[in-house]
């Protein structure tokens, strides 16, 4: 096949690249400007992995055996129909992923609600961006991670990054920050924090206390943009009533961040001509994640940043289609176009597009963590279908998740390799990879992209859309096309009039290279690269301050578990590692889990650098090799979450949920540290 311009299969930057067969070269695209990270450069190796699945498999006498596609799909459809008949439609659940294309996310949501009739559908984006999404909707009336183009950051004087480490997680992004004075909020001195003019290192789980302290410093220092607050916002008084009690010295006692640094951060942001506040997983993956993000948005609003060209607030979306994946219906409470499933008008409109009775659509189901926890229980689903996710590694309290999967009557996994989740399945369906099919994704700035087919899939492999089409037909349901452009044409109609309106986006416009940031409500509409310049998305056009109270981590250290653990990514790996661990060049650099520990803390536990250590919480334990990090807080340890088996960081993480977003508290829990054969 000829060279094809396409996009990277990993993070939400969706860097532009060119494929010549499986050979990757970067191309000049706004978000990466000709750069790629190690993962992008090596992405072509995924396409020829010897671990590739090419034949459907069914478990027989405990082992997975190859079968034909017709046999596999017939078997799956029959089992799903039997379980629905015996236990009702909610006996079957569906779990999607933030890496699925818009077309797959859309059709998966439709398949669950129309072909299966189940309310039990959610996706792994619930683990990633849901707190920022909830806070953004409350504040602005709409959630688009970055409501401005990435390239706007090049003109920033000051950028505050809260819980973000783009130097490792999305390196090409860093070039857009080079002209800015960086303020980095992170308990660890990461490579991003190393480049900052000001590093604020709060104790894990105290992000909101820090945001409240800086907001107090803004008002105390005379920096409040009163004209903006009066003209464009509501509810400042309620937010200030709380922040007024968080003078920086009080916030210092909770967070460990010097009060002088909070006042310096406030002054830097206020005195900048152009300033941005950006949040990411470090501040979002908490049982108070929505409130945490609300605190940072309050700070941005107090300075008059959102809805002003050259300044703003944004969320650094993580997964490749983390933005589009949460817009079109694979989320438990959602319909296409970012419509709410419990909105009668939304139900009526989408049901009309689908040709069904609105009353036949189920209501909202369980969120991701609650769904996984209910599997195989008396009141929970008896069957699960997984597309684009590896929950055995990525979900909190993953030992419990593995047990729940084993308790199911029936588990079906569609994947291109035998991931840790697929290895437990009753049926495994081999599906296409990123370069083997057309499809759209929506990057972190709300730009809809066409990722184009560059190579043919191996014989025997089908796309997820083909799988859904084949199963729907066997379940007696039509209207599930397998062609991505046909699916997208339906998605356009289904999203029309919604918050995330794609009705003016078409494959032809994307093929022609148009830059289309949603909403795009008409065929001749140029898109909306910068949202909120004239008004916010609430009916009155005004943004909302959030009256957020600090409560701290869901779990505090004690005598048995005296340390705090936090988790995150490393440069060479991505998410559960199911892709990057297959690439020798990446796996050779970081082949196994490690735990970062202050040398004094390690030695008190009888550990030297390179020793295997046991990290234990109230939920489980993992084993990882010790790395000494002198800059780490003595009461903190850090582990990457990319590794399987007994190296899973999520064996010990806390599934405590945010009450609004239902986000688990990945970023902080109480642990002990010991030698592998010793007591903590």
From TrEMBL:
Keyword hit for Oxidoreductase: yes
SUPFAM superfamilies for this protein: ADC-like, Formate dehydrogenase/DMSO reductase, domains 1-3
Domain 4Fe-4S Mo/W bis-MGD-type: 1-49
Superkingdom, natural source: Bacteria
The species this protein was found in: Amycolatopsis camponoti
Pfam families documented for this protein: Molybdop_Fe4S4, Molybdopterin, Molydop_binding
Record keyword Nucleotidyltransferase present: no
Assigned GO CC terms: membrane
A Gene Ontology BP annotation from the UniProt entry: respiratory electron transport chain
The protein's name: Assimilatory nitrate reductase large subunit (EC)
Molecular function in Gene Ontology: 4 iron, 4 sulfur cluster binding; metal ion binding; molybdopterin cofactor binding; NADH dehydrogenase activity
Top-level enzyme category: oxidoreductase
The entry's keywords: 4Fe-4S, Iron, Iron-sulfur, Metal-binding, Oxidoreductase
């Amino acid at each position: 096949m000829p060279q094809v311009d396409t996009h990277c299969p990993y993070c939400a930057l969706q860097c532009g690249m060119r494929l010549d067969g499986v050979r990757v070269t970067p191309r000049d695209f706004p978000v990466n400007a000709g750069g790629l990270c190690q993962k992008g450069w090596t992405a072509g190796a995924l396409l020829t992995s010897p671990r590739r699945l090419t034949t459907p498999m069914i478990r027989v006498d405990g082992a997975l055996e190859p079968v034909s596609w017709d046999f596999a799909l017939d078997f799956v459809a029959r089992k799903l129909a039997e379980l629905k008949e015996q236990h009702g439609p909610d006996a079957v659940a569906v779990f999607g992923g933030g890496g699925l294309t818009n077309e797959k996310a859309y059709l998966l949501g439709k398949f669950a609600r129309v072909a299966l009739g189940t309310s039990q559908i959610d996706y792994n984006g619930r683990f990633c961006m849901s707190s920022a999404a909830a806070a953004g909707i409350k504040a602005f009336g709409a959630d688009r991670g970055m409501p401005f183009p990435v390239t706007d950051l090049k003109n920033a004087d000051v950028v505050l990054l809260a819980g973000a480490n783009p130097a490792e997680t999305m390196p090409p992004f860093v070039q857009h920050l080079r002209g800015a004075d960086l303020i980095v909020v992170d308990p660890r001195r990461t490579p991003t924090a190393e480049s900052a003019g000001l590093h604020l290192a709060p104790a894990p789980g105290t992000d909101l206390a820090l945001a409240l302290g800086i907001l107090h410093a803004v008002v105390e220092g005379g920096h409040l943009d009163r004209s903006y607050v009066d003209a464009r916002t509501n509810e400042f008084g309620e937010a200030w009533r709380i922040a007024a009690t968080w003078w920086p010295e009080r916030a210092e006692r909770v967070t460990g961040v010097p009060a002088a640094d909070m006042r310096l951060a406030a002054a830097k942001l206020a005195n900048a001509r152009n300033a941005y506040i950006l949040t990411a997983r470090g501040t979002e993956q908490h049982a108070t994640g929505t409130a945490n993000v609300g605190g940072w948005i309050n700070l941005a609003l107090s300075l008059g940043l959102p809805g002003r060209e050259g300044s703003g607030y944004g969320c650094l979306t993580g997964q490749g289609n983390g933005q589009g994946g949460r817009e079109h219906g694979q989320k438990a409470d959602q319909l296409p176009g970012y419509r709410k499933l419990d909105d009668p008008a939304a139900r009526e409109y989408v049901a009309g597009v689908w040709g069904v009775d609105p009353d036949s659509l189920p209501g909202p189901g369980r969120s991701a963590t609650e769904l996984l926890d209910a599997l195989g229980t008396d009141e929970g689903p008896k069957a699960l279908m997984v597309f684009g996710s590896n929950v055995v590694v990525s979900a909190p309290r993953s030992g419990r998740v593995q047990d729940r999967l084993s308790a199911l009557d029936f588990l079906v996994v569609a994947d291109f390799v035998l991931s840790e989740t697929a290895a437990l399945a009753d049926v495994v369906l081999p599906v296409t990879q990123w370069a083997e099919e057309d499809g759209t994704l929506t990057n972190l700035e709300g730009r809809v992209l066409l990722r184009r087919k560059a190579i043919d899939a191996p014989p025997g492999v089908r796309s997820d859309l083909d799988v859904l089409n084949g199963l729907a037909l066997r379940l007696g349901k039509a209207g599930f096309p397998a062609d991505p452009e046909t699916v997208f044409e339906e998605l356009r109609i289904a999203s029309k009039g919604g918050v995330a309106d794609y009705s003016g986006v078409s494959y032809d416009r994307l093929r022609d290279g148009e830059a289309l940031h949603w909403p795009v409500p008409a065929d001749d509409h140029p898109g909306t690269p910068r949202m909120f310049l004239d008004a916010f998305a609430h009916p009155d056009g005004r943004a909302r301050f959030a009256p957020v109270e600090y409560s701290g981590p869901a779990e505090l250290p004690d005598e048995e578990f005296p340390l705090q653990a936090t988790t995150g990514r490393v440069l060479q790996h991505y998410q559960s590692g199911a892709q990057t661990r297959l690439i020798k060049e990446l796996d050779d650099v970081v082949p196994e889990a490690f735990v970062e520990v202050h040398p004094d803390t390690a030695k008190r536990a009888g550990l030297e650098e390179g020793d295997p250590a046991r990290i234990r919480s109230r939920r489980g334990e993992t084993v990882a090799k010790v790395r000494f990090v002198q800059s780490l807080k003595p009461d903190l340890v850090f582990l990457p979450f990319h590794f399987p088996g007994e190296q899973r960081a999520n064996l010990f993480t806390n599934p405590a949920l945010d009450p609004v977003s239902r986000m688990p508290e990945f970023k902080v829990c109480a642990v002990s540290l010991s030698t592998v054969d010793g007591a903590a």
